[in-house]
Amino acid sequence: MAETVAESDLSYPQSLVLFELREVEQATMGEVASSLNMSPSMVSRLVDQLVEKSMVVRKRVPEDRRVVVVSLSIKGREYADRLYKFYEEEMKAILSTLKQEELVNFISFLKELDERLS
Fold first, then answer.
1. DSSP labels for 34-45?
2. Which of 39, 61, 66, 76 stands 20 to 30 A from 3 (CA)?
3. 2-30 burial, b if ≥16 CB within 10 A, otherwise e?
């Protein structure tokens, strides 16, 4: 991928929002904030910035006009998919350099970390 997060005008937190929306399709600001362990005001600012970049769209829920959901635009989905594929390939390249024992230890560490964070 010619353009990575470092080379784009997206910040790391903005890319996290894109990845979250890539996984869930659409969500309220509160759901995104909770999932990313960020404050709602921070997510609101990030979404504002992503809307300006045409990466994210906001929609009011017809059943309750007070509720706003956000989702990826076509541009945002394409970018998130490319970025995800780039990171996946980078991770595979890095992990392929590990010896079997190192890989087992790394997986064990990730499982322990996941348990502690849950």
1. HHHT--HHHHHH
2. 39
3. eeeeeeeebeeebbbbbbbbbeeeebebe
Nearest to 30 by CA among 19, 48, 44, 50: 44
- Read off the CATH number of the domain in which 78 is found: 1.10.10.10
Which residue numbers in the chain have pLDDT < 70? 1-8
pLDDT value, residue 3: 53
Residue 55 contacts residue 72 (beta carbons within 8 Å) = yes
Q: Domain range spanning residue 16?
A: 12-90
Report the C-alpha gap between 101 and 66 in whole angstroms.
53
- List the structure tokens of 22: 């890539």
The residues with which 68 forms a beta bridge, in sequence order, are 60
